[in-house]
């Protein structure tokens, strides 16, 4: 499918690496592949979850308001899935994921990466040129794919888009509502002269969101259907909030911004 890009227009594009598919190439292995689903980045980078940012850091790679907006929007979507989910986990902010997202956003490459981390995490990308009022203008197109999605998995959605597009995509949406991907970290960066599918965008707002544990496998449902919180992992101790397995503390973003 040929894209016509006009410099005078407001343009928004999204691509998704959920562990289900590399949107610009071929699908990732099925979840049954040996060692395919690794539940964190520790094997790749070595880190502690939820670690705080140094007070000496000169500049945040995402504002507090944008971070809260992205996190709360994801949890709103996750708590309202239909059919209802029995094992949907509440999503929290993860500092290490945000830092890896920052590193990739600064590369200003319209593709998923870096490859060595994609073995361990999921990733949604969005890019926009022109003015925007809210960071959610770059996030909501991911959710809008729900109109083309049929539970339990996207029979009619093409995971190989955009290079082999012949139908709608759903993998951004399924990454957002993948029940066991309960951590997110994002970064936004302004890129100059960014190459987006062969066209040079003079000034592009680039959003990178990384997810963990990795999920979004092709051919698998993003969550289990049933009474909300009836199939939560034991680690949650039976705690439930807004139809999601609740970790006890609402989020760690207040600690992140101390």
TrEMBL record:
GO terms for molecular function: peptidase inhibitor activity. This is SCP domain-containing protein. Its main location: secreted. Belongs to the CRISP family. The keyword RNA-binding does not apply. Pfam families: CAP. Residues 1-21 form the signal peptide. Transmembrane segments: none annotated. Residues 65-219 form the SCP domain. It comes from the Eukaryota. It is found in: Secreted. GO terms for cellular component: extracellular region. It comes from Poecilia mexicana. Keywords: Glycoprotein, Protease inhibitor, Secreted, Signal.
